[in-house]
Amino acid sequence: MLAIAGALMQILLCNPLADPYILGISGGAAVVVLVGMTLGITGIWVDGLAFVGALISTILVFFIGFGRNYVAGDRLLLSGVVIAAGWGAIISLILSLTPDITLRSMLFWQAVLRL
Questions:
Q1: Around 65, how many Cα atoms within 13 Å sit in the side-chain half-sphere?
Q2: Which tens digits make up the pLDDT trace of 3-14?
Q3: What pTM does this model have?
């Protein structure tokens, strides 16, 4: 399913570089999960938070990338890069302000997410 999703992303944008990291989808998932972990949410709820964050990020990328009644692949890709940079800044802020107790679990989750 992941391979099919990746192939569909590349076909939709007509660009072989399109993936969840470049489009900001994984960054949106990470931000929502890290905020949830800061609030003490654990367990199976983390997966739900990741889904919600990815969905929010996808909608945001399509909203920004939508231009003049059509969706251009290059515009979507560039808006995804901008969104990914913003999520990266928010992730850095959250990790720098997090207490040491929850920081280890957040960093572990980030390492597993990147695999």
A1: 23
A2: 888 888 888 888
A3: 0.86
Share of the chain above pLDDT 70, in %: 93
pLDDT for res 89: 97
Rounded to an integer, what distance in angstroms lies between the CA atom of residue 12 and that of residue 95?
33
Number of Cβ within a 10 Å radius of residue 85 = 12
Give whole-number Cα distances, 3 to 15, 43, 107, in Å: 15, 26, 26
Count of CB atoms situated within 10 Å of the CB of 66: 14
> How many CB atoms sit inside 10 A of residue 30's CB?
25
Collapsed DSSP state (helix, strand, coil) of residue 76? helix
CA distance 106 to 65: 30
For tokens 């957040």, name the residue.
Answer: 106
The CA R_g of the chain, rounded to the nearest whole Å, is: 15
Q: How far apart are CA 78 and CA 38, in angstroms?
A: 30
